[in-house]
């Protein structure tokens, strides 16, 4: 079952016209949310990011999303699709109507799909440094969708080189993010992460780690950092809504791991209960 503009429909009944603006112009964005133990993980933060993305794209979000009434429908969809215990929700939102580059309306259509999945592994990652693409800061780079092709090409390079993930740099050769994760590192008891202006996504778990660190009186810095300097840190880890994973090597060079800190962070953010 799917949830299309607030209506439950079988997947076989979904019919989108060729004039669909998401298909024609990539005129929209998406969110990926984990459903765990009957709850939408970090849902309030996702609603806030959807509102911010819609403001940038001049999209008018449906009232059901703005009002906060959508979560009950989404959990019902998860239950129907046997994904309430652990599942992946994808919210797709795009500009309604036809038109060419100039749209007919700023109202949005939306589609929610949920499928059961297994929790992500927690084994440390072996990552490479991406050479084919770079991130680029823009009004659209903090949310998902407009720059999707960048991550597709990084994924192709990852597959070709046999790494678990790829470290993406910006045009100034500064550390930005991984393919679908943000990156953090510890050095001398300070927690670092790339600044949003490096072109990285403003990740939901990234926000929650910074929020937790602030409450725990752990000093944090959002910085501009070169990849070579990562080899000198005390620990590096990736994070997204599926979990938090240590990074063990970069381009085959071993880096320090602090699995105790990462395990504690998973517990603090609720990942160990999945």
Automatic annotation (TrEMBL):
Pfam families: Aminotran_4 (PF01063). The keyword Transferase applies. InterPro entries: Aminotrans_IV (IPR001544), Aminotrans_IV_CS (IPR018300), Aminotransferase-like (IPR036038), BCAT-like_C (IPR043132), BCAT-like_N (IPR043131), Class-IV_PLP-Dep_Aminotrnsfr (IPR050571). Keywords: Aminotransferase, Pyridoxal phosphate, Transferase. The keyword tRNA-binding does not apply. It comes from the Bacteria. One of its GO terms (biological process) is carboxylic acid biosynthetic process. GO terms for molecular function: transaminase activity. Its cofactor is pyridoxal 5'-phosphate. PROSITE patterns: AA_TRANSFER_CLASS_4. Belongs to the class-IV pyridoxal-phosphate-dependent aminotransferase family. This is Aminotransferase class IV. It comes from Pontibacter fetidus.
């Amino acid at each position: 079952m799917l949830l299309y503009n607030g209506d439950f429909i079988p997947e076989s009944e979904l019919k989108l016209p060729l004039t669909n603006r998401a298909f024609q112009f990539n005129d929209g964005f998406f969110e990926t949310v984990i459903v765990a133990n009957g709850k939408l993980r970090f849902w309030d933060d996702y609603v806030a990011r959807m509102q911010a993305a819609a403001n940038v794209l001049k999209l008018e979000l449906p009232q059901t999303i703005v009002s906060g009434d959508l979560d009950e429908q989404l959990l019902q969809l998860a239950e129907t699709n046997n994904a309430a215990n652990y599942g992946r929700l994808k919210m797709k939102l795009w500009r309604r109507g036809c038109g060419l580059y100039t749209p007919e309306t700023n109202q949005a259509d939306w589609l929610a799909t949920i499928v059961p999945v297994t929790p992500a592994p927690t084994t440390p990652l072996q990552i490479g440094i991406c050479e084919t693409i770079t991130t680029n800061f823009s009004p659209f780079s903090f949310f998902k969708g407009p720059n999707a092709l960048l991550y597709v090409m990084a994924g192709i390079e990852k597959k070709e080189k046999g790494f678990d993930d790829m470290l993406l740099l910006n045009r100034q050769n500064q550390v930005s993010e991984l393919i679908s994760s943000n990156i953090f590192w510890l050095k001398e008891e300070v927690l670092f992460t790339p600044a949003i202006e490096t072109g990285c996504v403003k990740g939901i778990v990234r926000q929650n780690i910074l929020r937790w660190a602030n409450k725990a009186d752990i000093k944090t810095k959002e910085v501009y950092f070169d990849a070579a300097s990562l080899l000198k840190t005390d620990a590096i880890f990736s994070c997204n809504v599926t979990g938090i994973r240590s990074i063990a090597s970069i381009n085959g060079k071993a880096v320090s791991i602090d699995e105790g800190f990462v395990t504690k962070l998973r517990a603090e953010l609720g990942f160990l209960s999945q």
